[in-house]
Each structure stands twice: as structure tokens, then as C-alpha cells.
Predict the structure.
Amino acid sequence: MGVSLKGKLVVAISSRALFDFEEENRIFEQGDDRAYMKLQLDRLEIPAKPGVAFSLVKKLLAFNDTSTQRVEVVILSRNDPVSGMRVFRSSQHYGLPIQRGSFTRGQPPWRYLKPLNANLFLSTHLSDVRAALDAGVPAAQVYPQSSHASDAHPHEVRIAFDGDAVLFSDEAERVYQAEGLDAFQRHEATKAGLPLPEGPFKPLLQALHRLQQEGTPSMRVRTALVTARSAPAHERAIRTLMDWNIEVDEAMFLGGLPKGEFLREFEPDFFFDDQTGHVDSAALHVPSGHVASGISNQG
């Protein structure tokens, strides 16, 4: 029987999302990739510092045990293969069992997501994220300046999601932007019993739900819906999740309040939102990523 990733939760991640390569990246952005390669090679024995998505990856990999490999993490990087050696060395240093990677030396790596059957792609390159979302893969642009995750929950991977244009489609958001808040509230109250169409991150939430059900007693998943919705528009969101037979552990209906301080208290390992203003607010407190989908990201 050949090797297969089927049935696993597959996370594809860029090297800059997993490790702090911001100093090295400044050399790369100057256009001198040879100097960048030399710097990475000179630092081969120096483990890179953890990056924004490090905690998320470490905790997800902790769902694996000697009998069952439930999670696979694969590096998809614009780095060159030489620099890729440092990525793997750094992973080994931190005890991250990452075995697979594709290093494209500046070319877009997102095209390898489909062969991997990836459930999530995290990258610092917005163009790669957009292409991945267009290809039907849940993807987010990691903000390298984000705060890092709290270490207060070592046996719980915590993930927070925005609703519209992330877990759900942007149907309701289009009404809000075209006609205003009152029209949005009326629209959602009228359609409270009609499930929202799925958004780009529903498949990831489903995969996390399966992971929680099949997982190990030493690790669990805790999820939160963190949305600008308020009553009465909350009901359609809850009923949609019920229709999908998916539970979230917490739901915050904030009615437009800034999300950052609420997320600080939830302490997620990662937060996903489609609006850059919300991501900017969240990034001050928690690891955050921009889901470049829906009407807010057109144009």
C-alpha cells in the first residue's frame, strides 16, 4: 500500500509563518537571494525562533501518538532548498515531527495544496492566500507582527473564527454593506431558520470537529465563534452550525465592539477574520490571520 495523507488533518504552512525569519527576510526582499541563502546556511546550526503559528502547529501535532497519525504538517515555502535545510533543522530542534516540504525559490507554492489534500494553508504572502482560497482551500495571511500565543493551555488547541465570509458565506455581509445595519438585522431575522451557505473555513471547522471526536485524552480542541453580529442576527449563525451538526465551545456576539480584547481573554492559538481592521485589532493580543475572501476583499 502506498503512502497517503487521506483522512488526516493536513496543515500546509510557510516557513515565515512557522518560524521568525523576519531578519532574514529583509535580506531576501532586497533582491539578493544569494546573500539570503548564505545567511540561512551560516545559521544552519542556530534554531530559528518560533513564529506566529508555531503554537498552533505544535499543539495540533500533539494529537499524534505512536499508534495513530491524525495530523500532518507540511512546509510550503518560497524559500530555496538550501534555506529549507534550516527550516527542518529548526523543526527537529523543537521536537516538531515535520517530514515533508516543498521549497520553490520564489515561485508560488500554493499549487501543491491540492495534491496534499490540505485542510489549511498559512502563509505571509497575500497572493498565495488568495490563490489558495480561489482553489477551495481554507487559507489565511499570517501577520508576522502578531502577538504570540499564550502558554496557559498546553493541552488545548484554541482556535477562534469570525463568522461571515469565514465560516459562513458573505451573503449577509453583502446586505449589510449595501443597505446598512437595520436591513442586515431584518434580513437575518427573517431568514433565521434558513442555514447560511458555507464559507471558506467550514471544511476546517469540520476537520477540527472530527479531530476532537477521534483525538487523544491528552489534547483537545476548543473553538470560538467571534462575530460582530448581535441579537437578533445571532440566531441564524447558531442555527447554521446546528444544521451542520458542528458545535463550537464559545460564541461571542459583539455587536461591532473591537474583537481584540475579547480574544485576549479567550487566548486562542490562532484567530481567523476576513476584515483587516478586525485582524489588526486582534493581532495586538493573539496570533491572527487575514482570510482574503468575500465582499470586503474585492477590488
The chain has a mean pLDDT of 94. The chain has two domains: 9-142, 156-297.
